[in-house]
């Protein structure tokens, strides 16, 4: 318990940043939507590019995004089957997106840097791209089924700048082309901007969340998938690979585990709004998961990473 309190204290700057975002939205009429485009098309690809450039790449490391993508997809399909027994089809189709992905960027990157340092952050960013791939392909498709077709989902993936940033960084890294020294401060500043602006967006978004609306079963199923099923899968992967296959090391296990305990992604609300499918229900659930994660993450990290 003391370890959890120590970590909670270390995370205090992140929580303060969330609070500053809330104040900016409440009293300065600042909107996260004004920042979202810049984050999506400039800051996020830059952070991914710099992280992959700094990562010690190998065939097994390059496969990490696809491994995480597979985990996300597996959880999404299992919980979709469960959701269809509990919920009506339109809102049930949002369960895979709520469970499979997470706030791995705005929440996860600052945490990874705090917990694992520069080297661990690089591995985390490589793993994190798997959730981005899922969110923009399988996750979006399952949520949009009945609204959009496969072609629209593929177009969404093609337009995602993070994919190209990842591919370029892998190519340069494997070609032994390092980051020019003159650009290092720029990418360091962009990573700082990513953390600050991302956490402030979370705070700004709270203004539009008017509490839990609709079916409580949706929230319970989303919480179970995100905070029980995902961590169990991550820990199972940790145990099986470390005991039998020994393909990866502890930095990868820790990165996948951190991904598994992040709260529901804010982009889930964006997609629900776009599809006009219970956006208030999804927004309320996302807010509750974010608040829950403020306590849940320190407890889980202190329990798993200290054992």
Give the topology, please:
Elements: H1 2-10, H2 12-27, H3 32-54, H4 59-62, H5 64-86, H6 89-92, H7 95-100, H8 108-136, H9 138-144, H10 150-158, H11 161-174, H12 184-205, H13 216-245, H14 250-260, H15 267-275, H16 279-305
Key structural traits:
about 300 residues; Na+/H+ antiporter like fold; 16 helices; mainly alpha; globular
Average pLDDT number: 82
Question: Structural class of the helix and strand makeup?
Answer: mainly alpha
Count the DSSP helices. 16
Largest sheet: none
Quaternary status of these chains? single chain
What distance lies between the first and last C-alpha atoms, to the nearest angstrom? 13 Å
CATH topology: Na+/H+ antiporter like fold
CATH class: Mainly Alpha
Give the % helix: over 70%
- Beta-strand percentage? under 5%
Cα Rg: 18 Å
Number of domains: 1
Summarize the helix and strand pattern as letters.
Answer: HHHHHHHHHHHHHHHH
What is the count of β-strands? 0
Shape: globular
Report low-confidence residues grouped into runs of 5 or more.
Answer: none
């Amino acid at each position: 318990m003391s370890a959890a309190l120590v970590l909670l204290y270390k995370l205090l700057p992140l929580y303060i940043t969330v609070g500053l975002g809330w104040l900016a939205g409440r009293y300065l009429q600042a909107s996260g939507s004004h920042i979202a485009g810049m984050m999506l098309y400039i800051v996020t690809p830059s952070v991914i590019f710099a992280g992959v450039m700094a990562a010690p790449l190998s065939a097994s490391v390059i496969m990490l995004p696809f491994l995480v993508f597979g985990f996300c997809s597996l959880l999404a399909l299992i919980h979709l089957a469960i959701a269809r027994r509990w919920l009506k089809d339109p809102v049930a189709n949002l369960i895979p997106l709520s469970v499979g992905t997470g706030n791995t960027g705005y929440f996860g990157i600052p945490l990874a840097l705090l917990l694992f340092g520069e080297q661990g952050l690089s591995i985390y960013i490589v793993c994190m791209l798997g959730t981005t791939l899922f969110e923009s392909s399988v996750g979006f498709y399952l949520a949009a089924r009945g609204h959009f077709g496969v072609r629209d989902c593929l177009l969404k993936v093609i337009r995602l700048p993070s994919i190209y940033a990842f591919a370029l960084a892998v190519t340069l890294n494997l070609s032994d082309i390092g980051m020019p020294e003159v650009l290092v401060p720029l990418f360091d500043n962009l990573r700082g901007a990513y953390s600050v602006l991302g956490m402030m967006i979370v705070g700004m978004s709270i203004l539009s969340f008017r509490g839990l609306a609709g079916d409580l079963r949706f929230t319970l199923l989303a919480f179970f998938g995100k905070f029980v099923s995902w961590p169990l899968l991550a820990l199972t992967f940790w145990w099986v690979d470390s005991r039998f296959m020994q393909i990866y090391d502890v930095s990868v296990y820790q990165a996948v585990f951190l991904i598994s305990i992040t709260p529901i992604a804010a982009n889930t609300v964006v997609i629900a709004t776009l599809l006009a499918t219970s956006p208030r229900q999804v927004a309320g659930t996302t807010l509750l998961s974010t608040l829950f994660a403020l306590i849940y993450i320190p407890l889980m990290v202190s329990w798993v990473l200290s054992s």
